[in-house]
Amino acid sequence: MAEVVLFHHAQGLTEGVRAFAEGLRGAGHTVHTPDLFDGVLPESIEAGLALIRELGDELGQRADKAVAELPADLVYAGFSVGESIAQRFAQTRAGARGALLYESCIPVTGEWAFGEWPQGLPVQIHGAEHDEFFGEDLPAAQELVEIAGADVAELFVYPAGGHLFTDSSLPAYDADATALVIERSAAFLSRLG
Predict the structure, then answer these.
(1) To 10 degrees, what angle do helices 45-55 and 81-92 make?
(2) Strands 98-102 and 153-158
(3) 93 within 8 A of 67, measured Cβ to Cβ
(4) Is 62 left (phi over 0), alpha (psi -120 to 50) or beta?
(5) pLDDT for residue 110
(6) CA–CA distance, 51 with 31 (Å, rounded to integer)
(7) CATH code of the domain containing 133
(8) 143: phi then psi, degrees, rounded to nearest 5
(9) Cα radius of gyration rounded to whole Å, the chain
C-alpha cells in the first residue's frame, strides 16, 4: 500500500479534509495530514488566502518541515492551495512515487512552473466542472497530462458545483463526486503498490 502526505486547502485542516484522508486510509493506505496553519481554520477561502499571504515563506518552510522526517518514496497530494505544495514536492523532492492533485494544477511550463514533470511520475488531477478557480487551472492540467503522457497521467472533471467540493465540512461539498474522487484516488494508490 502507498504512503501519502495530504496537504489541506486555504481553510485549513478541516473535518472534511480529515474525512477525505480517512477514506484513503480505509482503502489500506497510510495518509499523513500535516496542519500547516497550526489549528487555525479560516472561515472563508478569502480569509485563508489572507493568512497564507501573512505567513509568506513560512508556509513553505512548514511544509518542508512536515515532510523532512517522512520517507522519500511518498505520494504527494493536496487540495487547492495545498495542491501547489504537493506538486512542488512531486516535481522537486527525490523519490516521489506519484501525485494526487485536487481542485488545482500549477503549469509545468512557463514562469510559474517548478520545473519539468519527472519522467514517468504517475499523476491524477481532479476538479469540478463549475469551479471558477479550477477553470483557470484546467489548461495547465490538460498540458500536464499531455506532457506526462496518457499512460501515467489522468484528468477527471466532475459535474460538481464549486471549489472545495471534496470537503464534507464546507457548503460546496458534493458527496457523490467526492466518493468517486476517493475511489479513483484509492485505485491509483493501489496501482503504485
Answers:
(1) 50
(2) unpaired
(3) yes
(4) alpha
(5) 86
(6) 25
(7) 3.40.50.1820
(8) -65, -40
(9) 15
Those residues of the chain that have pLDDT short of 50 are: none
SS3 annotation, the chain: CCEEEEECECCECCHHHHHHHHHHHCCCCEEECCCCCCCCCCCCHHHHHHHHHHHCHHHHHHHHHHHHCCCCCCEEEEECHHHHHHHHHHHHCCCCCEEEEECCCCCCCCCCCCCCCCCCCCEEEEEECCCHHHHHHHHHHHHHHHHHCCCCEEEEEECCCCCCCCCCCCCCCCHHHHHHHHHHHHHHHHHHC
| The total number of structural domains that make up the chain | 1
Q: pTM score, two decimals? A: 0.97
Q: Starting from the edge strand earliest in sequence, which strands make up the sheet with 3-7, in order?
A: 30-32, 3-7, 75-79, 98-102, 123-128, 153-158
- The answer to whether the CB of 77 falls within 8 A of the CB of 99 is yes
Residue 119: predicted pLDDT: 95
Q: What's the pLDDT at 29? A: 97
